[in-house]
Each structure stands twice: as structure tokens, then as C-alpha cells.
Design brief:
- This protein is α/β, with parallel strands linked by helices.
- It has one domain (1-172, 189-245): Alpha-Beta Complex (2-enoyl-CoA Hydratase, Chain A, domain 1), CATH 3.90.226.
- 48% of the residues lie in helices and 18% in strands.
- It has nine helices and ten strands.
- The strands form two sheets. The protein has a six-stranded mixed beta sheet, sandwiched between helices.
- The protein is globular.
- Pfam families: ECH_1 (PF00378).
- Belongs to the enoyl-CoA hydratase/isomerase family.
- This is Enoyl-CoA hydratase family protein.
Length: 245
């Protein structure tokens, strides 16, 4: 089987690279499983001080794979694993992010992108809602901005993503942006990182505990609906769905 997530390690930092170019790193059942397993291994390795999550190609993550979508429970589990991991997780984005891919950014502790990256919550355009990914996003991002971008599916850039709290920082060279971040993480004690992350993620985990079951059920119901079938078919056929006026 093709390896969809590659792991490399350098001076306390493990980099996990999404490598599924055939579907623009979309969240297929296989990719979600591979990434969850890779994160579990990182959590069990005392040599891992932090994790960098990045990608090949021009797209960080295109959202759910409509041909092979993960079960909502699996996506909840992946997002929670990022949030609960004892080491910080840093997103490194040099391409575009759509829909479910934004949930990965929301779950990460720090997220940086190049200035050419673009973002969009496209769920409403195919008849569903950003349900499960709201678990890490709602506690961490500007609610008025989320209302706009959730409801319209508009594309926005890295500067706006920073303003809304979706990103920590952006710059022409994302590696220059992240250099002081990674240097700081390498100087921090493992215990200090773990306990500080626990403080920072407490509210997010409360949201998972309270809302995960309801949002998982909502996601499953919407994806099985007639409007979602029309929306996904239209997307795959590269046409407007019937409701576009």
C-alpha cells in the first residue's frame, strides 16, 4: 500500500508530511487512519519534542475525500488526538486548505502559512455543514469571521486567516516564520511543554466532551441527505448544483 504520511525526525522535531497527491491530500479514510497512527507513535516517543504537520504539492488538505470519506467518528478521533497529544503540533502550510483541512489547522497548537495560501469553508456549497471541524475551531477563532466564511464558502487569504485566529502567523517564507517557533520548542522542557499545552487545550477538550456526539450525528445525517448527494455529485461533475441561482 502507498504510504500516505511520511515521518522524519530532526533534533527533537518530528515532521509528518501528508503525501496523497491524487486527491490533493483530501481526508480519505486511509489518510485519516495513517495520520492518527503516526500521531500515536509520536506521542509514545520520548525523543519527540514537537510535531510539524505539513504536506506535499500545492494543497495542504482539500477537505473530506468525497469518494472515500472517513467516518465522522474517525475524524473526531483524529482531531482530538492532535489536541490531546502531549507535544505541541505545528501546522506548516505552503498551499491551499479547504473544508475539513481547516479542522486540522484548528486542532494544531500553532499554525503558519505562506502568504500565497488560501482558505475556504466550502461545506455549505455541497449541502453539508462544518460540523465536526467546529470542535477545535469554535473555541479558537473569531465567531463573526466564522459566521461569514461558514455561511458563504468564500475564499480568503493568509492575512485574514491570521486576523481571525485560524493561523498564528504568515509570511513569504513560512520556514523563516517558523524558525523561531521551532527553536523555542527545542529549548523547552518536555514537562513544561506538556503541562502548558494541557492548560491551553482545556477549553477545546471541554467542547469535544460536550458536543462531539451531536456534531458527529449531524455530519452523518447531512452527508446522507439528498441535497448532499446532489452537491457532491455536482462537485465531482464540475457543475453547479441545482440550487444555485
Amino acid at each position: 500500500m502507498t504510504e500516505l504520511v511520511h515521518a522524519t525526525h530532526d533534533r527533537g522535531i518530528t515532521t509528518l508530511t501528508l503525501d496523497s497527491p491524487g486527491n490533493r491530500n483530501a481526508l480519505s479514510a486511509a489518510l485519516v487512519g495513517d495520520l492518527a497512527d503516526a500521531l500515536t507513535r509520536c506521542g509514545e516517543d520520548d525523543d519527540v519534542r514537537a510535531v510539524v504537520l505539513t504536506h506535499t504539492g500545492t494543497t495542504f488538505c482539500a477537505g473530506a475525500d468525497l469518494r472515500d470519506p472517513p467516518h465522522p467518528d474517525a475524524l473526531v478521533g483524529l482531531l482530538r488526538r492532535i489536541v490531546e497529544l502531549r507535544t505541541p503540533v505545528v501546522a506548516r502550510v505552503t498551499g491551499h486548505v479547504r473544508a475539513g483541512g481547516l479542522g486540522l489547522l484548528g486542532a494544531c497548537d500553532i499554525a503558519a502559512a505562506s502568504t500565497g495560501a488560501t482558505f475556504a469553508f466550502t461545506e455549505v456549497r455541497i449541502g453539508v455543514a462544518p460540523a465536526v471541524i467546529s470542535l477545535p475551531l469554535l473555541p479558537r477563532t473569531d465567531p463573526r469571521a466564522l459566521a461569514r466564511y461558514y455561511l458563504t464558502g468564500e475564499r480568503f487569504g493568509a492575512a485574514e486567516a491570521v486576523r481571525t485566529g485560524l493561523l498564528t502567523a504568515s509570511g513569504t517564507d513560512v520556514d523563516e516564520v517558523l524558525a523561531p517557533v521551532l527553536a523555542g520548542l527545542r529549548r523547552a522542557s518536555p514537562q513544561g511543554l506538556a503541562e502548558t499545552k494541557r492548560l491551553l487545550t482545556a477549553t477545546v477538550l471541554e467542547t469535544f466532551d460536550r458536543d462531539a456526539a451531536d456534531l458527529t450525528a449531524l455530519s452523518a445525517r447531512l452527508f446522507a441527505s439528498p441535497q448532499a448527494r446532489e452537491g457532491m455529485t455536482a462537485f465531482l461533475e464540475r457543475r453547479d448544483p441545482v440550487w444555485v441561482v
